[in-house]
Design a protein that fits this description.
The complex is a heterodimer of chains A (456) and B (221). Chain A has 456 residues and is of the alpha+beta class. Chain A has helices at residues 20-29, 31-36, 153-158, 186-190, 203-210, 305-310, 419-426, and strands spanning 102-103, 124-125, 138-143, 149-152, 162-169, 193-202, 218-223, 230-234, 258-263, 266-267, 277-279, 292-298, 313-314, 320-322, 330-335, 346-355, 361-367, 375-376, 378-380, 389-397, 402-410, 439-442, 448-453. Chain B has helices at 8-20, 25-33, 44-47, 68-78, 80-83, 101-110, 127-137, 148-161, and strands spanning 40-41, 65-67, 170-172, 187-189, 211-212. Chain B has 221 residues and is mainly α. Classes of the chains: A alpha+beta (456), B mainly alpha (221).
Chain lengths: 456, 221
């Protein structure tokens, strides 16, 4: 429980002669100031009143100045600076029994754009990452089609190509936080999501080529790893095993699907499905089958292990939700975040990422007072469908406590919910699709902590 | 698919021929279809070794059978080290047997832990896809190496551990679809969005936020 009064505005006024407590009262009275608030000047310096240190020691000549560096191709495939050694995928050892059927997390706290570098894309395997030889690998498309066909990797690369930037998100992203605060790290609260530029062949182009029967309402995709992972994907008219229709939006998702062979311009990495993977933007990433070997067009779902025992949501009304496929809008502030401390008072830029499986991000609002007041953040171009969008908002930290949080609204008008709103409907056992507003607490010490707000 | 309104093959060829003239129609056709000459046809017979997926209703179950009794030996030898001799789970691997259905549902309604309890006897709707999972993916350390009859037998043994079938039951392509799975009628397909937050911008709450802090220290600092 926090008893401290929170500073309320991103542009906390620090004007000369206004004592801290008075300032808070003043701000509480005037939300309008909070909105315009750039008036942080006053103290004789147009950039604010935080006293700066002065360097008087003559500068050192750096150790790199009088030596020869490495020649070209000394590292044929370039790697990050050795000083970036901590920017790596991580796993949570107690989360799974081994690393072969497990997950790793993208370090968004150290990323600055919308693209996840290939070596940092989160991994989710069910029987480990395998090395599939592209010379011999084949993709079969069959079932309710005019022409069952088989394609080599060269065949796929000859076809008309499709390139788009999309996020992939495991439905378990944030799952460790359902019952309470657990992971004091943004990497672990939101790192089961990554975003890449993908290139491949559009599924709908292939569907036309093989002549899919209009009566086909489902397809399924299958991998060639040990788990031979398979998922059912609905199309128009899809019904579940009880004859109930799937949501219309779920039945449209396949139109953006592709058979991807490239990720951020280079071949897929083995841990992301080399040489090809299914890519179903906007849907839980488990459906984007890696090491893809087969697509079959059918007229009913498999209701496979993944669909009946694993990616299901037990609800407090005693039902079990199935086929919750779409990733709803989500956002989080990745600077500041619990992985780093504040570095002194003064100016910061609050930055974050927002995404929606239903389309484009429309707005992101930021609160620094626990959700009482919000200010719209600037969206950084490009703003693309089913893609991470970066947002930013200036912030003056005067040393007070803040609860900072972001809230996305997507182009369908869906507004990211609070954790309490989710819990009210889904209880504590629904495991997946936890997309609630994330609060970080900035302490007076400069520590940043993962917290949850329990009353709204 | 007929739902895809434009046939790029036909239209593209016509447009290409008009633009480039007859002498280059061959190039135009290739350009227009984007697929001319790519790939191979394949017979369903040739696909058979890969076409292993079993549907919830038993469609595509392979011919074969295995009894509860026949399943004990392979289960104890290949499964019990991870899933427990009685299906209770071991070493962090999934349990085959969780709370019985009534207790599982009660836990959900009371907000008690149901996540770690998901199992064959309370969160698996259809027996044929249990066979599919075992045949395809098990045993974990050597995926997909059990034979058809052995997979039926292990399926049957697991179902018996959950008191879903009697100990004299024989699982087969004929019987598996009719096994009455305890969880089957509890599934409801997605109806989200199930929450409706509003985009309030100012004075959204009267009371102060009640904040709960973190229990675990971050590892990446």
């Amino acid at each position: 429980m926090s008893e401290t009064t929170l500073d309320q505005t991103p542009q906390s006024d620090a004007r000369e002669g206004v004592a801290s407590s008075d300032r808070r009262k003043f701000l509480r009275k005037s939300v309008a100031l909070a909105a315009t608030g750039a008036a942080t000047a006053a103290a004789g310096n147009a950039y604010g009143d935080v006293k700066l240190e002065t360097v008087t020691e003559p500068l050192e000549i750096g150790s790199t100045r009088h030596i020869l560096g490495r020649g070209v191709v000394s590292v044929p495939y370039g790697m990050p600076s050795k000083f970036e050694k901590d920017v790596v995928r991580r796993n949570v050892s107690w989360l799974t029994a081994d690393t072969v059927a497990s997950i790793s997390f993208t370090p968004w706290q150290d990323l600055h754009g919308i693209i996840t570098p290939n070596g940092l894309h989160f991994e989710r395997h069910h029987a480990g990452a395998v090395d599939v030889d592209p010379e011999t690998h084949q993709l079969v498309i069959h079932g309710m089609v005019d022409k069952p066909m088989v394609f080599s990797m060269e065949d796929l690369k000859r076809m008309p190509s499709h390139t788009a930037i999309h996020f992939l998100e495991c439905p378990a992203n944030g799952a460790m936080e359902w019952r309470g605060v657990q992971m004091n790290s943004m990497q672990f609260t939101h790192g089961m999501m990554s975003c890449s530029e993908w290139t491949g062949v559009k599924l709908t182009d292939l569907m036309e080529y093989v002549g899919v029967d209009p009566k086909s309402t489902w397809l399924y995709a299958e991998g060639t790893d040990g788990s031979a992972l398979q998922r059912s994907i609905p199309m128009e008219g899809a019904k579940d095993q009880f004859g109930e229709p799937l949501p219309a939006e779920s039945c449209e998702m396949y139109k953006d699907a592709m058979i991807a062979y490239a990720q951020n311009g280079e071949a897929l990495r083995p841990e992301n499905g080399y040489p090809i993977r299914f890519l179903l933007p906007g849907c839980e990433a488990n459906m984007s089958i890696k090491w893809l070997r087969r697509i079959k067009f059918v007229d009913k779902p498999l209701v496979t292990y993944q669909e009946t025992r694993h990616y299901i949501e037990p609800l407090p009304d005693g039902t079990i939700r199935q086929f919750s496929l779409v990733n709803e809008a989500n956002s989080v502030i990745n600077y500041p975040c619990p992985d780093y401390q504040m570095k002194g008072k003064g100016a910061y830029e609050i930055r974050g990422i927002a995404w929606s499986g239903r389309g484009k991000v429309a707005h992101v609002d930021v609160s620094v007072d626990g959700g009482k007041n919000w200010q719209e953040a600037e969206l950084v171009e490009p703003v693309l469908s089913k893609c991470v969008t970066k947002f930013k908002l200036p912030f003056e930290w005067t040393g007070g406590e803040h609860l900072i949080m972001s809230r996305v609204t997507d182009e369908t008008g869906y507004v990211q919910p609070t954790l309490m709103q989710l819990r009210e409907v889904r209880g504590f056992n629904s495991i997946y699709h936890k997309n609630s507003i994330q609060a970080w607490k900035i302490e007076k010490t400069g520590e940043v902590k993962n917290v949850q707000i329990e009353n709204f | 698919m007929s739902k895809l309104k434009t046939s790029k093959f036909g239209l593209g060829l016509a447009a290409g021929a008009m633009a480039l003239g007859l002498s280059t129609a061959g190039i135009a056709a290739e350009h227009a279809s984007g697929f001319n000459g790519i790939g191979k046809n394949i017979t369903e017979k040739a696909i058979e070794p890969w076409d292993i997926s079993v549907f919830y209703d038993g469609t595509n179950l392979p011919k074969g059978s295995g009894s509860v009794q026949a399943g004990q030996e392979p289960y104890d030898a290949q499964c019990a080290m991870c899933h427990g001799a009685f299906g209770e789970g071991a070493n962090g691997y999934p349990k085959m047997m969780g709370d019985p259905m009534p207790q599982f549902i009660k836990s959900l309604k009371q907000g008690l832990d149901g996540v770690g309890n998901r199992a064959v006897n309370n969160a698996w709707g259809h027996a044929p896809t249990l066979f599919d999972m075992i045949k395809r993916h098990m045993p974990f350390y050597a995926p997909g190496t059990m034979g058809v009859d052995e997979s039926y037998a292990v399926t049957c043994y697991v179902l018996n551990l959950g008191m879903i079938v009697d100990s004299d039951f024989v699982c087969s392509d004929e019987t598996l679809a009719d096994v009455d799975m305890p969880a089957r009628d509890y599934y409801v397909t997605d109806t989200r969005p199930d929450v409706n937050n509003q985009r309030c911008m100012s004075d959204c709450y009267d009371e102060a936020p009640k904040v709960v802090g973190a229990a675990v220290t971050g590892v990446s600092q």
